[in-house]
Each structure stands twice: as structure tokens, then as C-alpha cells.
Amino acid sequence: MMLFDRIKMLRAKGVIGMNFRNIELIGRYNDRSKYPLVDNKLITKRIAKEAGIAVTELYGKIEWQSQLARLHEMLAPYDSFVIKPVHGSGGKGIVVITHREDDLFIRANGTSMTLTDIHTHITNILSGLYSLGGRYDIAIIEKMVEFDPVFQNYSYEGVPDVRLIVYKGYPMMAMMRCPTHESNGKANLHQGAVGVGIDIATGKAINAVQHNHPVTVHPNTKHDFSGLQIPHWEEILKIGAKCYDMTGLGYLGADIVFDRNVGPLLLELNARPGLAIQIANNKGEYHRVKRIDQEKQERNAEERAAFCINVLSKV
Amino acid sequence: MSSRFQVMVIAFMLAAIGLFIVWYKAAFLNIPLTPHEKKDYFTISAEVSFTGDNAPAEITMALPAPQEGVKIISQESESGDFGFTISQTEEGERAVWSKRNIEGKQKIFYKITVSPEAFYSYSPDSGVNAGLSQNYNVDTGTIFALWDEVERAAVSSLIDTVRVHSSGPLTFAAQLIDQLNKEAPSDSVKLLLNMKNEDKISLIMKILMHEKINVRKVRGIYLKDRQKGRTLTEMFEVQTDEGWKLFDYEKGHVYKPKDLFVWQRGNDALFTAKGVSKPRLRFSIIQTQVPVISTIQQNIYGSSEFLNFSLFTLPASQQNAFKQILLIPMGVLIVVILRILVGIRTMGTFMPVLFSLAFIQTSLLNGLVMFFVIVFSGLFIRFYLSRLRLLLVARISAVIIVVIAIMSLMSIISYKLGITQVLSVTFFPMIILSWTIERMSILWEEEGGREVFVQGSGSLIVAVLAYFVMMNEYAAYLFFSFPELLLVILAVIILIGRYTGYRVSELLRFAPLGRS
């Protein structure tokens, strides 16, 4: 029967489904009490700094509605900035302001906002519109990432990032997420961003998909993905490996961006990373999970990154 | 013990317990598995007719006692202006009708409704039946006093023959009947059978009494439909070491026939009539079929401790509430299956179940139409509200009020137009509707209309499927009558909760990986 053939084929490729992820990976290795470490961006920033990982610079935070009265003064020194909900997920509620024109704030996608618009947006964030479970939230204003020109050709109206899946401290799979016009500058695959599977050994592109369909060039810039090479690859893997040490979460998604001045920055962590990375890599996570399960010896972050380059990439 | 193994054990145990209770209730408490199952009720009416003699009259009749295999549902006397009492005798209850002065033809009815039930048993009330066994200190010398010498000689010879071939009361009675029913009877038997003032029945009774065997008459009626003008079938019982054994005058020892309802046990007269002439007692039977479920609801199962603890014992309004509440697990199961096994995305986890509950009240088509009207007009107004820059809680509150306004408006307009179905719009949970509208509009802004469509239609598909399952008459009935099925559902949900395989939707989603 066709259905069973398909299941067999996906099994052979080591593709894991949501149920497997939820029970065997998240349920088993992600302790709920540690979720705030990744769900709260302020805490993530703090522990990353303590672990020696670079993060985007924090300009300020707004906790109370009354603080909005000072919004204008707060934003005054900055020409570009990003507003985020502290408990947001999946890029919800993020507004990127690239520059100002008179009284208007210009967003990455070209539309403009007035101060009142920003005011409203932050009010929405505070009332929990974008946070998990609708609880009261905090808005943070941070420095806009000026992304590395290396990626100029692979992105449109947004910042591309690298998503690492870190299993028990081993960065076992990676993909680059390239915003498109369709994704509205966001790096979310289901909104139309291109997912580029990255070879864990070299940092080179191996495959690219948009909406689950293979593509070879970026839909807006028309640039070929086959030439994509992520710089500082080994360092990136080490950052991923360190994220495990600082959170203790066994199944983790780490999003890393490249600032032209600072280099790789940890953007955010995710305790429930999606499975689209498998499609981008044309490879399932299962076999690598099982290979890592066999490793009994204690290793530090550097050794784990090396293990991924030397051993895991061939699994 | 791994958690997976524990899950298996727990699920298995829950399912086993649930199914066992269902089986027990179905097999032994006769709770039917389908709502339409009917059971037979037989209404036996005893009709006493007589002619009054312008004198005080008193009519008595033996009344049936509780018995195994047939349950007495109700009994009543229809006797006009006769005084009616029930008197206790050593052999059981008797109905007594009395009147100072009667004339002309009269009829009295006594109606009793019974239901044959294979597993029905009662513990005999010692007060009623105990007297029977002690009351047979008959003076054996006087039994055959009215007979002549020849007859006495014949009966002695018969008794001798039977005695030789028997070992106790049971075999004696069996042999006696056998002798009397032989195709080629002996001379003494012939002589006895031809006696003018003794029939075979009284002959057998007298001989048994003479032998000091405790014996009592049994009068009963076969439960068959459309019997009219019947008399009771007579049998007798003999006391043995193992209790009373039933005999047929023709066939010898018998076990109690399945459909025999015993009206009277004992040697008292079935009925007596004083002060009237031409008394006559006749029986008729009518069979009716009653839905079993109504009999349970009438709480006539009070005898079972188990059912005393069931939902049937609640007041009617609570029963109705629970009929609704017990449907929810079915809806929840549908949600679990569609989300975990199929992978349909819905707006809010259990909102679809709440909507299907509303659909049950409004009927599906009306409900869907009203849902669309409310949600679309709500969305429209929500988009306008978003321009007023309100705080989230205030905005949702505003949407709630708008939804209520839309509902009222719909009701008024449709009522004026004569479409009364729309009045059931009130069954929609307003706060849930408002939240749905809010979520939809956020989703629209954040992820675009496509996602709204995917999740919205996903929610509706789940709601409609849950509606059909919950509307299923059999499901509704089963869950109300056998709430322990909840344990089975719980077991299934626990098992699904450990399913790590692919969702159906993932086979599509990961299809590019399958190709290569």
C-alpha cells in the first residue's frame, strides 16, 4: 500500500514526526523548569553573556504601561532598533526599524510607523498578545543586527539566521533561514522563508527548500544557494554546543545571526524547535540522535563541536 | 519499569475495568446495550364475576408472592366501590373485597404486571413461606374416610406398589404419577380413576398426604400474549431434603417452566366468595413491550446496590445535564485523534468541542450559518476596533459585547421574519466566540489569511466531526447508561498520548524527503 511505503521511506531517511519530537526528545530531555531560560529573552541574554556568548545589545526594556510616556526619549538616541516581546515565539511581535525619515520610523519591509503606532504595538506586547499563553509581557528594545554582507545575496528585507539543532550538547543539524519578500522579512519557513540545509562538517549549503519544495536560487535575489558558505563555522558550532551547557536543555534550537561588526551573535533559543530543518537538509534527525545516544563519554563544548564535524556529519 | 510500559499497564487496566463493568451491567443487571431494546411486560388480570344476593359479601383471592425469574412490576385492584384490603395469611397475601349490600352482576379486577427476567432473584421472605412446611400434621386416618372398602383396598395396594419402587418423597411422588398415567393401568388404579367424587388431582394429593409427604398445590399461568378466559394451571410441589420440587400431574417431576408465573402456592382455596352466587374467576393476559431504558429510569431497579449508585438515581434535570456532560469525552477523543494521529491544526485545543456542543443545541446547518455570520461580522468590527488602539483586555471585552449585540440583532430580525431556528443562537458560548474572533484577526495580521483559513477550517472540521459523534444516539445512550466507558476512553487517550509515529499530515509534509 502506498501509505505504508511512504512511512517506510520516511523511516529509512530517519525523519522524525511531531509526536516523536514531543515525547522522546522534548518530553524526555527538556525539563520544564528550565523553559524560562529560553522563553524569556532577558534571561537568555543574561546567561549567554555569563557563558561568554555574544548577544545583541539591549537598549532598554518596557515593563509597565506608564513607562510608555517616556518612549520618545527612550528611542531618541537610536536611528535603528528592534522591538521584541520578551516571551514571544516564532518571530511574533518583532518590529525592525532600519532608519527614520522625519517623524516616521521605517520598517525593514519598507512600510512606515508613527510613534503612536509603535506605542500601540508595545501596548499589545505588554498585554500579552504575542506571548505564550497570553500572559503579561515585557517589551525589549535592542540593537538592530547589521548583517554580514556575505549574506547580502541570500536575504531580502530581513536578517538571515542559522538555526542549529543541539541534541545533548551536540549541534547535530543546521540550516540557514533566508527571509524572502513573501515571508515579510521574517526567517520563518512556514511563512515562505527559504530553508538552506547546511553541511555540519563544512558549513556549506547542501540543499534549499521553500514551502517544502526544492529551490536552487533565492526567489527575490535570484542568487544561487550552491555557493553559500557560512563563515566562522567551527565557532558557530561551539556557540551551539555551549548553549546546552548554559541551559541544560537536551533538545534545543539555537538561532545565530551574523553582525558585520561583532560577528556571530546568539539571537534566541527555542525549547521546541520545529522539524522543517529535516526537509531543508533532505535528511532526518533520527539516525544522528541514535548516534549521539551511543556516546557515553563526557566532553566539553569544543570536543562536542569537533565530534560533530568529524563523526556526526557522516551519519 | 519504563514509563512506556507503565502507560501500557495503566491503559490496559483502565480498559479492562471499564469493559468488565459494562459487561456485568449488561449481562446481570439487564441494562441494554442499545437505546431501543425492549422488554416484555405481561399484564395479568384476574376477573372475578358474580351475582349479588342483596346480602353482605366478602370475596377473597390469593395473591402472587415474589418469585425467581419473574419480576412483579406493579399490581392494583379495580373493584369500584368494594372495600379492598390485603390480608396476611400463613400462605401469603390474600386480597379481600367486601361490601355490605350488592345486587346484580358484578365484576372485580385485579391486575398485575410482571416481566420475565432470567437473572432476577429475590431472597425469600421467611415470614411468608415458612408457615407452609409446618402445617401438614394431617390426620392420616381421616383422609380416606368417605371411601368404601374396595376403594380403600385399591389405594392401599397402589401405595404398596409405589412404596416398593421408591426411595423417598421425590421418587414416591414420581412413581405415583407414573402408575396413575400408565397406558395399561393396574386394576386398582383403574378403580381409583373411575371414582365419581375424586379426580386424579385430589387423589394424588390425598395419597401423598397419607404418606406424610409434605405437599402443596401450585397454581400458575403461562405468560403468553392474548390469553382470555383462562383458569390457572394446577401443579403441586413435594418437599424433599433439597427443598420443594415441582410436579406436573401428567408428566411427573418437572423443573419450573420458564414462562410460568406462579399465582399461588399452598393448599388454601384460590378464591372464596361469601354472600354471592355464581362466583367465577378467570384470567387474561396482555403482552406489551416497554423500552428498557424507561424501566431503568423508573428506578424499579432499586434492588441492585450497583444501580443505586448510578446516574439514573439523579433528579431528572441533573440527568439531562449529565447526558450532555458525558458527551464531552467523545468530543475530546475526536480532538485527540485528529490532532495527534491526523495532525489537523485547530484554533485553540478544545474550542472545537465547545462549538460542537453549541451545534448540538442549534442543529448543525443553522449552527454553521450562524457561526459564519457572527464570526465574519465580528472580524469586521474587530478590524475597526484595532484602529482605535485599545488595550487587549478592553478590546476583547468590546468584541464580547459586539458579539452579544450581533446575536440579539440576529434573533430579533429572524424572529420578525419568522425564522425561529435562529433564536437558538444563544447557545453559542459568547466568550469563546469573541476569543476566536480575536485570535483569527491576530492570526490574519501575523501569518496572513491562509493560516486563518487552515486553522479555521481545521477547527470547523473537528467541530463537525465531534458533532456527529456526539449526536450519535447510540453513543449518547451508551455513555449515559455505562459511564464506566469513560475509563475505556481514558485508556485510549493515554495510549494515543504515547504515540511517537508520524501524523497523517506529516506524510504529506515530509513527502519531499521520501522521494530523493
Automatic annotation (TrEMBL), chain B:
<dbReference type="InterPro" id="IPR025840">
    <property type="entry name" value="7TM_transglut"/>
</dbReference>
<feature type="transmembrane region" description="Helical">
    <location>
        <begin position="325"/>
        <end position="344"/>
    </location>
</feature>
<dbReference type="InterPro" id="IPR025838">
    <property type="entry name" value="Transglut_i_TM"/>
</dbReference>
<dbReference type="Pfam" id="PF14402">
    <property type="entry name" value="7TM_transglut"/>
</dbReference>
<dbReference type="Pfam" id="PF14400">
    <property type="entry name" value="Transglut_i_TM"/>
</dbReference>
<feature type="transmembrane region" description="Helical">
    <location>
        <begin position="452"/>
        <end position="470"/>
    </location>
</feature>
<feature type="domain" description="7 transmembrane helices usually fused to an inactive transglutaminase">
    <location>
        <begin position="270"/>
        <end position="513"/>
    </location>
</feature>
<keyword id="KW-1133">Transmembrane helix</keyword>
<feature type="transmembrane region" description="Helical">
    <location>
        <begin position="364"/>
        <end position="385"/>
    </location>
</feature>
<feature type="transmembrane region" description="Helical">
    <location>
        <begin position="476"/>
        <end position="496"/>
    </location>
</feature>
<protein>
    <submittedName>
        <fullName>UUP1 family membrane protein</fullName>
    </submittedName>
</protein>
<feature type="transmembrane region" description="Helical">
    <location>
        <begin position="419"/>
        <end position="440"/>
    </location>
</feature>
<keyword id="KW-0812">Transmembrane</keyword>
<keyword id="KW-0472">Membrane</keyword>
<feature type="transmembrane region" description="Helical">
    <location>
        <begin position="392"/>
        <end position="413"/>
    </location>
</feature>
<feature type="transmembrane region" description="Helical">
    <location>
        <begin position="6"/>
        <end position="24"/>
    </location>
</feature>
<feature type="domain" description="Inactive transglutaminase fused to 7 transmembrane helices">
    <location>
        <begin position="24"/>
        <end position="194"/>
    </location>
</feature>
